[in-house]
């Protein structure tokens, strides 16, 4: 990580509390919001996200999918299991005997379309609660933070 800079002159600009804790609290609350909306479609928000990526990316090797989602391979395998069990995703043979492909089934594409309506409602409801401008600023800030942290990690910084 970059070296810490001098403290800002304004006390209001000094962070209070633990950034990690605050982010985890926000993620949990937002996750519960989306999970509640997605329950009507029979999916958790994380399952919807994974299914959406598989549908959008088409047949894809598990390693490529894990890299796109920034997940460990073991986490991806664990998260795919319920989707495979429901028949929404299949693991098919790849180009050679050692490779496999993750593929959305027709049932998976239909489930994603059904769940997309619930996701859209959750998105609109969250925008209404927080305000669209605030959500847009949050997205911009998150993108900036992800870029900065990603550049730091690429340069050999801590995870």
From TrEMBL:
GO molecular function term, any single one: DNA-binding transcription factor activity
UniProt-listed Pfam families: MarR_2 (PF12802)
Keywords, in A-Z order: DNA-binding
Record bears the keyword Transcription regulation: no
InterPro entries xrefs: HTH_MarR-typ, MarR/SlyA-like, WH-like_DNA-bd_sf, WH_DNA-bd_sf
GO BP term, example: response to stress
Domain HTH marR-type per the UniProt entry, residue ranges: 20-147
PROSITE patterns: HTH_MARR_2 (PS50995)
Name of this chain's protein: MarR family transcriptional regulator
Species: Caldimonas thermodepolymerans
């Amino acid at each position: 990580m970059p070296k810490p800079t001098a403290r800002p002159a304004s006390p209001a600009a000094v962070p209070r509390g633990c950034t990690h804790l605050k982010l985890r609290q926000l993620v949990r609350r937002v996750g519960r919001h989306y999970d509640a909306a997605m329950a009507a479609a029979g999916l958790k928000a994380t399952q919807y996200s994974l299914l959406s990526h598989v549908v959008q990316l088409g047949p894809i090797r598990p390693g490529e999918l894990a890299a796109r989602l920034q997940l460990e391979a073991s986490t991806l395998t664990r998260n795919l299991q319920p989707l495979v069990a429901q028949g929404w995703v299949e693991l098919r043979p790849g180009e050679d005997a050692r490779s496999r492909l993750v593929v959305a089934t027709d049932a998976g594409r239909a489930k994603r379309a059904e769940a997309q309506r619930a996701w859209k409602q959750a998105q609109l409801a969250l925008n209404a609660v927080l305000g669209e401008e605030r959500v847009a600023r949050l997205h911009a800030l998150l993108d900036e933070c992800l870029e900065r942290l990603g550049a730091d990690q690429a340069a050999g910084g801590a995870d």
